[in-house]
Amino acid sequence: MEPWMYILLLGAAIVVVGMLRPKVVPEGNSTELRRNMEETLEHYMRELEVENEKLITVIERMKKESDLRDDALRRRMDKLEHNWSSFEERLASANEDVKDESGKQEQKAPPEPPSIPQAIVEEVLFETSEVDDFVETFLDDLPEAPAAVPLRARYPELFALLEQGYSEEEAAQQLAMPRGEAQLIIKLEQQEVRRV
Q1: DSSP state, residue 125
Q2: Cα 90 to Cα 95: distance, rounded to the nearest angstrom
Q3: What integer pLDDT is reported at residue 108 of this predicted model?
Q4: Alpha-carbon span 114 to 95, nearest angstrom
Q5: Hey, how many other C-beta atoms are within 10 angstroms of the C-beta on 127?
Q6: Whole-angstrom Cα distance, residue 124 to residue 89?
Q7: Which of 9, 123, 137, 195 is most buried by its number of CB atoms within 10 A?
Q8: Contact 186/175 with Cβ under 8 angstroms?
Q9: CA 27 to chain centre
């Protein structure tokens, strides 16, 4: 809620309380009562103002922290993209060097493995370990895989439609399944049958 909404609600509450309160006018002390009421309201308004300023300060600080976090993540992502592109360039040049060296070597001696600069190897190992950690945590979160169930048993409707003479596209449309998914399931089932 915006600060002005609090002030509006407070004013509405004061008006309602004023209307519900019995109107008893003290004899002779009406000016003093009015002055006390005004002082109380002014004091309350000052307190509200101070609290609103604190709230605004906290919100501004949170926004700055959020912006700083976003900037840091954006810079890190840019750096990773830059590192990845430079790694790809170095890998391509290393592959070209290997091809050039293998073209020059016409001896019957077994070819030596290509030499990759140590920095590239360390960088690849570091990135690979990050990927391995991510994959490991992702796989840990997955439920246990059930025993291998044949694809025909998992997708009986698809194979029933195919046996009835439907094409892959027609069967996919009947089942509201993407055509590529249906084709993939069919090909995997064919490979499964060949293995058995």
Answers
A1: H
A2: 8
A3: 47
A4: 8
A5: 14
A6: 13
A7: 123
A8: no
A9: 69
Residue 143 has which token pair?
């439920």
**Contact criterion met (CB below 8 Å) for 152 and 196:** no
Residue 91 has, within 13 A of its CA and on its CB side, a CA count of: 10
Look-up of token digits 């060296």:
101
In the predicted model, residues of the chain with pLDDT beneath 50 are: 106, 108
Q: Which amino acid is at 122?
A: E
What's residue 60's pLDDT?
Answer: 92
Taking CA atoms, 161 is separated from 32, 165, 167, in Å, by: 92, 7, 8
The three-point CA angle 16-17-23 to 5° equals: 110
Q: In whole angstroms, give the CA distance from residue 125 to residue 108.
A: 32
Q: What string of DSSP letters covers 29-66? A: -HHHHHHHHHHHHHHHHHHHHHHHHHHHHHHHHHHHHH
pLDDT at 165: 93
